[in-house]
Amino acid sequence: MRLRGLMVLTALFLIICPLVFVAQSGQEFKDPEGMYAITLAGDWKAVSYKDAVGRQKTEFVYRDRSEGLLKITKESLTDGDLAGMVRREEETQKIYRAGFERASTEAFGAGPLKGFRFSFYNTDSHRPKANTYYFLQEGNSVWVLRFTGSRGTLDTIRNLTDQVARSFRPL
Q: pTM for this structure?
């Protein structure tokens, strides 16, 4: 009887381990223009569309667009001071975001690029929103990963947003 229980436990272990690995490994997305690659973890998925001018755009959605949305841009680092760029972004958000509430600004790394993680809360049409921006420096350029979503969803999946940001790499 004891041997049978051990065999069942071993069989379950062998079935579940590969599923956990697949769930955590995510799927890699490569930008069609060849600018970057990113690994999408959890329920994040790429959504491509054409804008009003006909340009191909890609956004990343967590379950539903209102729960989590990621937009990636590349900006020029004009004065060479990434910390200053993050401070200016915070000042801009204070002015233009209703109900702005700063959460944190911290150094961010462990991926191929280093930078800062800036998070804050605001309201949009009386709905509470969470925002997390990753500023990742590559020479004189900065990649900005802007995660936005509903408060209560985006702020509770920090492990996934950090994992996605760490996987980001320019090509």
A: 0.83
